Every structure is written in structure tokens, then in C-alpha cells.
Amino acid sequence: MTYASSRPARLAFWASIFLSLQFFIGLDNPTLSMAAKGGSVAMLGVYALLLGRNKTHWHIAAVLAIGAVGDMFMEVDSTIGGAFFALGHVVAIALYWRNRRPVLTSSQRMAALALLVLTPLVSWQLSGGKPEVALYALFLGTMAATAWSSRFPRYWTGIGALLFVASDLFIFHRMGTGSDAVSQWTVWPLYYVGQALIVLGITKKAAEEESIT
């Protein structure tokens, strides 16, 4: 990948960071704030597409596009927003399953199983026993488990998926007996950094494979 071809992608990535910071800092106009929130994640998808147009790039771009819509709906209707996020997890699970590692160590299998089982269980407990949270968290935990078991770099995509889970756990804690003050400073940074690490890991792996071929 040459600098000339990667420069638009870098601009898209920096635009994503800028919009993310704008949302985190806070905008007086709710419409602009919602646009900055969704736009920051959508630009990560643009970043992926500007780096390549193979099946993997399109797949992660679709995941991020669905996530961006979910982000915006979360500002007006959390039920619809949550449904979009669940859909995004299903699309992400398909991506990770298609790119699963052929061989896993016992520790890797145990970590994936822990994510699959503990994510919905802990989410349900933190939310005060809300069944809809447990259902959503089943998709969340499966996404994280398959990401961890995929051939994408664990220190990028795997850790990114874990940060995504951590972000949602803070939301569920707030739904139960948690503090708004804590979640205010943790949810968005964990979520956005998680999404950024996910796309960086996936595009990094795709670039390595393209350079080989």
C-alpha cells in the first residue's frame, strides 16, 4: 500500500477521531451531537473501504454502518438502537466465523467460552435481571468470542471486542444500580477505541495478505 493510496484513508480515520471527540466533549445541538456520534463510527467504515474493496473490507464496513445507525438511534430510542447493535453483532459474527482460526489452544478456547457464557450472565446481573439485556448480551458475547477466536490480531481486533463488551457492561451497570458519573466517562471511550481497534486489526490482516499475494 503506497502513501498516495492510503492518504484518503488516513484522512477518514482522523475525521473519525475528530467526530468522536466532538461527541464526547459535548455539542449544544442534539442533532449535531447525534450526527457526530454516528459519523465517527461511519468514518471508520469509510476508512476500511478506502484501504481496499475486497470481501473483508466490505464486510467490516457493513458492520460499522449498522453500528453507526444504532449509535444514532440510541440517542432517541434505546430499543431500536439496541436492535441495530444486535444486528451488527450478527453480521460481525459471520465475519469472524468466516475468518476463524483453524486451530485454537486450550486457553484460547476457554477464553472464548468464558466470553460466550459470562457476558450475558454478568450483563443480566448488572442490569438488575432484565431479560432483554441478557438476550442482547448473548449476541454481544458471541461477537466477542468469535472475534477472539478469529485469525485477526488479538491485540487489535480481539482487544477491541473486549473493550466493546466492557463499554456495554458499564451501560448495564448504570441500568441497575450504577452511577451515571462513572459511565459518562467510560462508555464512549471504551466503545469508540474498541471499534477503532477492531477495524485496524482487520484491515492490518487484510493488507498483510494482499501483500503476500
Distance between the termini: 13 Å
How many runs of DSSP E, i.e. beta strands?
A: 0
Query: Major sheet, described briefly?
Result: none
Shape: globular
**Which structural category do the helix and sheet elements fall into?**
mainly alpha
Count of helical regions: 8
Written as H for each helix and E for each strand, in order along the chain, the element string is HHHHHHHH
The fraction of residues in strands falls at: under 5%
- Give the low-confidence spans: none
Q: What is the residue-averaged pLDDT?
A: 93
Helix amount, in percent? over 70%
- Rg, rounded, reads 17 Å
In brief, what are we looking at here?
This protein has 213 residues and is mostly helical. The chain has helices spanning 3-25, 30-51, 55-74, 78-98, 106-126, 131-148, 154-175, 180-212.
